[in-house]
Amino acid sequence: MTGTRKTAADARHDTEGPRPRSGPRSRTRSPSRSGARTEARTGTRTRRTVTAAAFLLPALVLLGALVVYPIGYSVQRSFFDRSGESFAGLDNYVTLFTDDTIRTAVRNNLIWVVVAPAVATALGLIFAVLTERVRWGTAFKLVVFMPMAISMLAAGIIFRLVYEQDPDRGVANAVWVGVHDTFAESSGFPRARPLPVHPLEAAGGGAYVTKAPVRAGEPVALPLIGVPPARMPGDARPARAPAASGGGISGTAWLDFTRGGGGKPNAVDPKELGLKGLRIEAVKDGEVVARTTAGADGTFTLPAAADGAVLRLPASNFREQYNGVAWLGPHLVTPAIIGSYVWMWAGFAMVLIAAGLAGLPRDVLEAARVDGANEWQVFRRITVPLLGPVLGVVLVTLMINVLKVFDLVFIIAPGSAQDDANVLALQLYRSSFGTDADLGVGSAIAVLLLLLVLPVMAVNIRRMRRENRR
């Protein structure tokens, strides 16, 4: 009986049927609910895409109008002639490598790309490292970085004045002439010369000699003209008439010119000044036996050994004064302009490198010093390798920048040397908008510039991606 007896739960089970299992296996999804979720996800994705496109559309329109279209039009225009009506093929590109002016621009661009970024980066590295531990380092960095606040136009005007040939106006030549005159004897009376009635004659090489030998006891007159009153020595005094000397040779060297007229040649007039500092030599048989210089009043004396000698005024008295270096001449104009560029951008390099230097692990540097490395070894073997990524950023940025340099060359280089300082950006302007404009050649130069910039940009993008992966 017990085996056949059913409980109330069994009876209820028989009546209601099997109860569905609970748990994840027993759950079933309705096809309608799954499709609704898929459609919702698709709609959300579509809305996000439309929203992103709506925000990006203005930027894409500007990018296309200001970048893509000009590039495409320049490429197309480079295959047409000057008028833009006849197809010229590759003629414009052939001109780039056959025209002497454009080839000079290409050569100068290569010099710019190699020299300017390297020098600016090296100076920035040196400034950043040397000023890291000094108290006035911040002030020094501020001074070095200040040229970045000046526009290229203003910097060009500044350096056009700095490189002036006249030492009285150009700072570079003023310094250069000052250093030169410190170590080289300067000329006292450039362009001074005697008159035909004077007792002097040319001796070759710019020197002058007396027409007859001098004799002891006979005063010697050495008059000259051609010295501007403003170039006379400031402490020159009125000349004193030559007087006889007992056993030696005496005389006077003076400027035989009276302002306002009225003077007599070969005679010392009251208003005429002595040629202070004029060098005088006594020459016998081709050898100098005595030498002297004129005093403030022009008087001079020579020993008795000069008796019977010919007095010579060396050419060093009359040579043109040293006027410095032709910084804007055909040979130095490109290095001079590169110098102005480095002056502007060395501060930019210094600031970026200093920021990278501040993030270096100090324990590595201190460990190297503890192991016995000197500062040069620490700098060369640790600091520079650790700063490699920063140096790469600075170098690539400056390389892209110099490929577009235009303002400095256009402003600093004078018209006579502009062909020698020419670069591609300047030649692009001259070919496209100059007096003999050829838009076909100008467009070809623009395409060439683009092709030169693209590899540098590709290297920069590749480096940035590598840094992001780290």
TrEMBL record:
Pfam families: BPD_transp_1 (PF00528). Residues 7-19 have a biased composition (Basic and acidic residues). Residues 106-460 form the ABC transmembrane type-1 domain. It is found in: Cell membrane. It is a multi-pass membrane protein. The keyword Transport applies. Keywords: Cell membrane, Membrane, Transmembrane, Transmembrane helix, Transport. Residues 1-45 are annotated as: Disordered. The chain crosses the membrane at residues 50-72, 110-130, 142-163, 342-361, 382-403, 439-461. Belongs to the binding-protein-dependent transport system permease family. This is Sugar ABC transporter permease. It comes from Streptomyces roseicoloratus.
